[in-house]
Design brief:
single chain, alpha+beta, Jelly Rolls, Arc Repressor Mutant, subunit A, six-stranded mixed beta sheet, six-stranded antiparallel beta sheet, 9 helices, 24% strand, Tscrpt_reg_AraC-type_HTH
């Protein structure tokens, strides 16, 4: 496992390959390739951070929460907020850092949150990473990005891990093996607790029932397999679906596109 410190306005880890950054006053953007098993240890920034995995996945630990994120979500991390990032597979991390004075208006930006990864906002982040030379263009991009964030709804469909250690153990195992078909009673029995105890923990800590959470985890895993080029029918079985058609329907309901279209979009974006 590779561990690296990641702090400061434009600090980049020494191991990052294909890294690029662009700075305009108290505003910057950076991109870097991350390897499987890389971890940014607990740290904070003096600036607000908007993080996005254009490919691959990230586990973000912030404010007592654990979120598993892919390209469908941005993570907003306010200045001064301690956080840790881990990467379970190769991918590309895109980040924008800005002075808190430049953040969108409203108290909600003082708390970490996940937002839908708007296509235009994602394109702006990538554009800023290319080292836009013109100051007026950088300012215009920054202003548009802030405006888009201001209108962006908070997303609650990320894969969050329960705080309860017993429920978290189940969740971690399912993320590693999403095809595991054991029901809640079987999981609880193996831990020597009641199914109701585990059920309450999932709802209290993730906002979802165990069944709902498992569907999210399976589709989250499926997105990664599709991005790595695996065939739809193979992915369906790998994440626990006996029927390819039911997998396609569930995936489309979750991501808004079919698995094939999703995989094509990852390839087309250069991920």
């Amino acid at each position: 496992m590779s561990r690296a410190e990641h702090s400061g306005l434009v600090a980049m880890p020494s191991w990052a390959g294909n890294a690029a950054e662009a700075t305009s006053e108290n505003f910057s953007a950076s991109r870097s390739r991350v390897d499987s098993g890389t971890v940014f240890d607990l740290h904070q920034h003096q600036e607000d951070q908007l993080a996005w995995m254009s490919s691959g996945s990230m586990e973000l630990i912030v404010a007592g929460e654990r979120w598993h994120l892919r390209r469908e979500h941005f993570a907003w991390i306010p200045a001064g907020m301690m956080h840790e990032m881990g990467f379970g597979e190769p991918g590309e991390l895109i980040s924008v850092y800005a002075d808190p004075a430049l953040r969108p208006e409203g108290d909600r930006w003082g708390r970490p949150r996940t937002l839908r990864a708007d296509d235009l906002a994602a394109s702006l982040m990538l554009h800023l990473c290319q080292g836009v030379p013109d100051l007026a263009r950088r300012r215009a991009c920054r202003a548009l990005l802030v405006d888009l964030l201001q209108e962006s709804p908070v997303q609650h469909d990320v894969v969050a891990l329960p705080r309860d250690p017993r429920a978290r153990a189940i969740a971690t195992t399912l993320l590693e093996n999403p095809a595991d078909s054991r029901d809640l009673r079987e999981w609880a029995g193996g831990l020597g607790v009641s199914a109701k105890t585990i059920a309450r923990a999932f709802v209290a800590d993730t906002g979802n029932t165990f069944r709902e959470w498992r569907v999210q985890a399976r589709l989250h895993a499926a997105a990664g397999l599709l991005a790595r080029g695996q065939a739809v029918q193979n992915v369906a079985g790998a994440v626990g679906y006996e029927s390819v058609s039911s997998f396609i329907a569930a995936f489309k309901a979750r991501f808004g596109v079919t698995p094939a279209r999703y995989a094509h979009g990852v390839v087309s974006s250069g991920s």
